[in-house]
């Protein structure tokens, strides 16, 4: 049964009702949904009938399979958890933890840019989530504020609690270098080894996420992209990795140093996540989250 706006077994406490839309991405629309017992979730519903008619069906299906199996293995407070997968007649429904508070992207747009304490609090959480993802031999590949959700119900005193979501581009890498080969993700957040198709074809690893983390920190503090514009000049800027800050929006020296430590051309030169978490910009406030506010 897959009729209307409900899904799951008929006459069953596990039946879900789809409610209003929460957001859309490149591949799917995500809606709020409630289970018969009243608990609330977010559901990402993929239209399989439509998918089957696509010329690249097999590729998209493989990607979907990867997203589901990766989400099922990841269990961490900084990562959106997957509760259930229900296959209906027309749709595959991924039932996830509901995170109410919108995308980090919209919070940045609304504020223009973040103060350093607010950005620091978010940065630490992203770094901790990434550290866990990498420890599971997974490369995230799509780190950007659109995929970072704000958990409004747990955010206090202007400090945002966040969760990483959308593992549609993530990949399990067995042993370090050479299994991730394709250019996926979002151009503004691409590391040079992803941006350059010839380099990407030689393989890249988890360190692409470190570059994107540097770009995310830049975006939070400056409210603009470090590398932007039309494709070709932007890719040239990325290859050179020259980071400049607008004169009227200069982050502190420690913040600039951390950004530049992540946005390095050679993957092996980028700061590790442990080095990020021990960086002076993090510890300058005493290193304890309770002292940040
Ligand atoms: P896509 O693969 O199409 O990019 P996403 O998984 O990124 O899809 O989801 C699209 C949008 O839906 C997100 O950017 C966000 O706004 C919203 N969303 C996704 N997951 C959740 C969730 N667990 N709770 C609340 N909103 C969500
Ligand atoms: Mg997305």
Automatic annotation (TrEMBL):
<feature type="binding site">
    <location>
        <begin position="146"/>
        <end position="147"/>
    </location>
    <ligand>
        <name>ATP</name>
    </ligand>
</feature>
<feature type="binding site">
    <location>
        <position position="44"/>
    </location>
    <ligand>
        <name>ATP</name>
    </ligand>
</feature>
<feature type="cross-link" description="Glycyl lysine isopeptide (Lys-Gly) (interchain with G-Cter in SUMO2)">
    <location>
        <position position="144"/>
    </location>
</feature>
<feature type="domain" description="Protein kinase">
    <location>
        <begin position="16"/>
        <end position="282"/>
    </location>
</feature>
<comment type="subunit">
    <text>Monomer.</text>
</comment>
<protein>
    <recommendedName>
        <fullName>Protein kinase domain-containing protein</fullName>
    </recommendedName>
</protein>
<feature type="binding site">
    <location>
        <position position="166"/>
    </location>
    <ligand>
        <name>ATP</name>
    </ligand>
</feature>
<feature type="active site" description="Proton acceptor">
    <location>
        <position position="142"/>
    </location>
</feature>
């Amino acid at each position: 049964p897959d009729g209307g706006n409900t899904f799951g077994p008929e006459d069953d406490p596990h039946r879900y009702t789809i409610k209003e839309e929460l957001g859309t991405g490149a591949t799917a629309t995500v809606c709020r949904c409630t289970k018969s017992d009243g608990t609330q979730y977010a559901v990402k519903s993929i239209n399989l009938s439509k998918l089957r008619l696509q010329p690249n069906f097999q590729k998209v299906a493989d990607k979907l399979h990867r997203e589901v199996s990766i989400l099922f293995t990841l269990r961490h407070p900084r990562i959106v958890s997957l509760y259930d997968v229900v296959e209906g007649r027309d749709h595959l429904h991924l039932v996830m933890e509901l995170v109410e508070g919108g995308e980090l992207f919209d919070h940045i747009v609304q504020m223009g840019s973040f103060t350093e304490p607010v950005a620091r609090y978010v940065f630490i959480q992203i770094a901790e989530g990434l550290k866990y993802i990498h420890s599971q031999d997974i490369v995230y590949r799509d780190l950007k504020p659109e995929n970072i959700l704000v958990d409004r119900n747990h955010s206090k005193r202007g400090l945002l609690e966040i969760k990483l979501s959308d593992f549609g581009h993530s990949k399990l890498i067995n042993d370090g270098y050479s299994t991730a080969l394709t250019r996926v993700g979002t151009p503004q957040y691409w590391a040079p080894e992803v941006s350059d198709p010839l380099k990407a074809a030689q393989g890249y690893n988890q360190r692409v996420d470190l570059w994107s983390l540097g770009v995310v920190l830049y975006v939070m503090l400056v409210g603009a992209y470090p590398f932007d514009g039309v494709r070709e000049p932007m890719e040239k800027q990325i290859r050179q990795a020259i980071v400049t800050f607008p004169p009227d929006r200069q982050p502190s020296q420690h913040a600039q140093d951390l950004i530049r430590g992540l946005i390095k051309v050679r993957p092996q030169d980028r700061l590790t996540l442990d080095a990020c978490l021990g960086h002076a910009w993090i510890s300058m406030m005493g290193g304890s989250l309770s002292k940040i506010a």
